[in-house]
Amino acid sequence: AESQKEEDAKILEERLKGQAEQLKYKYELERQSEVESAVAAARDESARHAAKQAEILKQEMTEAAEKQIRDLNSFWSDEAALRESVVEVEYQVKLEKSNALLSGVSEMLDVQSERYQTLLYNQKLLNLTTALFDAINTSENVDATRLQASVDLLRTEYKHDPLISAVTASIPHSVHCSSFTILRDRLTELDGECRKVSLMTSEDCGIGSKILSRAMSALTIHDSTYDTSPEEGGSSTLYYLNKAEQAMKSNNLDSAARYLNQLAGTPRTLVMDWLKDARALLEMRQSARVILNYAKSKNNS
To answer: What is the Cα Rg of the chain in Å?
Structure first.
């Protein structure tokens, strides 16, 4: 009867874990949907803003050109009288004023055209940086093709922009990043491996440390509340592993990487590849955030 109770408790525990995983997955999907909806709304608002600005510029150009042409026609309306009166000086002044008006119209059109081109240039930059930000901040698998295309376009289309050039120069030419979800799942797998060698924190650790590590792993494998710091006499490996897992549950990759970076010995060796991939993702996120904010500031100026 006692073994049956234990068996039932285990089954109940597995069911609760399964339900918790389903709820967590559903929450991540809903959160991803909300992020995508917010980004789409921001992109639509930006497009509407650009179209409105373009229409305003077009209207200003049309009105200014029509006014200049009316002024020019007004000057030339009495051309016949000027010629008949043979007032050469006045005629010459009139001609110079007409040329000045035409020159003014030409300069005004050049300025307005330049403003319109700048507007389109900045809007395209915002679209590219938004696509890059979306690609690198997805919680599922990162689309490497889309990510690479966004970076390459920024490099070629905005190579004369100092900030864009500086940021893209820091990004590897062959872009590859693991998603947050993949890193979280890998850390869960590494947790068990690190616990088995938790006491092997230096090169002089022998078979005794390995045996004790496995024993401690068996005793604390389900203890997610372990919070005894090394300064308090606790295991540094178990302490930093728990801290890193808690940080990942809070979607804080930066803190998780900082905790794992404090591991030593064999546990640190086991997480080195994970740390490398985490740093790559953090650096790409930072680069995407910088150029996206830069593009937004240019479109709002």
So the answer is: 33
Other Cβ atoms less than 10 A from the Cβ of 165: the count is 13
Q: What CA–CA distance (Å, rounded) separates 17 from 88?
A: 99
Q: What is the pLDDT of residue 275?
A: 94
The residue ranges of the chain whose pLDDT is under 50 are 204, 206, 208-209, 213-214, 217, 222
Take residue 29 and report the two structure tokens written for it. Answer: 């999907």
pTM over 0.70: no
pLDDT digits 0-9 by tens, 91-138 = 677 767 777 777 776 677 666 667 777 788 888 888 888 888 887 887
Instruction: Give Cα 265 to chain centroid, integer Å.
Output: 34
**What are the start-end ranges of the H helices in the chain?**
2-76, 79-85, 88-136, 144-157, 162-169, 180-196, 207-220, 236-249, 253-260, 265-300
Q: Could you give the CA distance from residue 44 to residue 230 in angstroms, rounded to a whole number? A: 52
Tokens 């990162």 — which residue? 142
Instruction: Give the integer Cα–Cα distance in Å for 202 and 269.
Output: 11
Element (H, E) at 176: none
The alpha carbon dihedral of 62, 65, 70, 73 has a sign of: negative
CA distance 288 to 284: 6
d(Cα 255, Cα 112) in Å, to the nearest integer?
Answer: 49
Can you say whether residue 283 is alpha, beta or left, with left for phi > 0 and alpha for psi between -120 and 50 degrees?
alpha
Helix axes 253-260, 236-249, angle to 10 degrees: 170
- Confirm if 150 and 132 have CB atoms less than 8 A apart: yes
How many whole angstroms separate alpha carbon 217 and alpha carbon 194? 9
Type of residue found at 111: V
Distance CA 186, CA 108 (A): 61
Placement of tokens 């007032």 in the chain: 87
d(CA 229, CA 239): 6
Reported as a single tens digit per residue, the pLDDT across 252-274 is 999 999 999 999 888 899 999 99
